[in-house]
Amino acid sequence: VQLVQSGAELRNPGASVKVSCKTSGYTFTSYYIDWVRQAPGQGPEWMGRIDPEDGGTKYADSVKGRFTISRDNAKNTLYLQMNSLKSEDTAVYYCARGGFIYYADSNYYGMDYWGNGTLVTVAS
Fold it and tell me: How far is the C-alpha of 12 from the C-alpha of 18, rounded, in Å?
């Protein structure tokens, strides 16, 4: 299993950027893909998730309306479109393969494979 992300980006505040995550080694539609970011000196922050099978998405309230997750099933690739960038969006962005595991009468969600990370820097 591999998740390979696009390279580092530098943008001005207010600009847009699209980060990609190309997957291989598993059935693309069988797992969710989550996007998580980590800003300098901060802990990880979950951004959102997509179900590649039907394109359904969920987003963190902090980015809802500004960030959009999409997929290209023909290319086994996911995208994170970020608009109206702010300096506080500066972070390393990771895609991760996610899924539910049913254990002891409960469902647990986890991410098992991660991309290599994409540094997005927002600065004027």
Answer: 14
